[in-house]
Amino acid sequence: MVTNGRVRMEDVARAAGVSVATVSKVVNGRYGVAAATTARVHGVIAELGYETSLGARSLRSSRTGILGVLVAEFEPFSTELLKGVSDAMADTGYELLAFAGATHGETVGWERRSLRRLGGTLLDGAIIVTPTVIEPGSAVPVVAIDPHTGSSDVPTVDSDNVGGARSAVQHLIDLGHTRIGMIRGREDLESARLREQGFRQAMAAAGLEVDETLLATGSYRADSAVAPARLLLDRRDRPSAVFAANDLMAIRTIEVAGSLGLRVPQDLSVVGFDNVPESALTEPPLTTVAQPLREMGRTALDMLLTMMAARQPEQVHARLQTRLVERASTAAP
Questions:
Q1: pLDDT at 289
Q2: Residue ranges in the chain whose pLDDT is less than 50
Q3: Which of 45, 184, 282, 309 has the CA that lies 20 to 30 A from 197?
Q4: So what's the architecture of 161-290 in CATH?
Q5: What is the 3-class SS of 84-140, one letter each residue?
């Protein structure tokens, strides 16, 4: 009988009528146990729900059977990536650990600390989402999604940030907008820099001059868009359209516009980036650039498993295509 909440190896041995040493051999796949006894022990393990300690398993075999997805925090972007990884985990033989590593609003260095805590002890490999620091030579294989820098010694997965931003701004220009503002993303992330680059490329291609006073900076968090949106919209010569570097900031920009008495899209057009599920639920639904977020998660997992098999991924730096999703938050000025 199990006397507390955790099933121990001793409990399995007692229920199966064998020694603890025999249970240990069965659990660790060692020889020297009769087939009937092995079957009986496995039956008791299933009945009692016995699980070996991850730490002990790691010490015995140098493997834990666990892959990690490390994020700064759980928000719509990272959650969609996590779903993609989870979808692709079936039949891999691994289990998945999702870990949010940033504390107290921390934005830099959380991934280094998280890897040191988990890598090699609890994890056999890791996927890090939007890392600000990428260090080769980790204790476990690592793949980065939407990293701080461009090409590095660490395999990466991202989307066509430049092309996606260019298509968003071109959409506004095609509608007739010429005075277009932008709420930029975190300055430490490569994706934010590339999306601003796409914004500038689209404006230049149309022969439109960028008004630098119509560029404001957020941090990709929803609340970080409040002050920049007010700065752009609470002025006489406000822009007729705003491109926000991600959906969370775009959604908050729509809310700020409403608080200032502006109607979207009649008085202001708004475009976002990411196509997180929330973007289709706003009022009005948000026009945005879709990143293939779940595919990015699946691609990162494929790359990680290839590395763990001591093989080189076909693409060390995978870049996936984006597409414009037109909804009701944009119209002619």
A1: 98
A2: 1, 3, 55, 58-61
A3: 282
A4: 3-Layer(aba) Sandwich (3.40)
A5: HHHHCCCCCCCEEEEEECCCCCCCCCHHHHHHHHHECCCECEEEEECCCCCCCCCCC
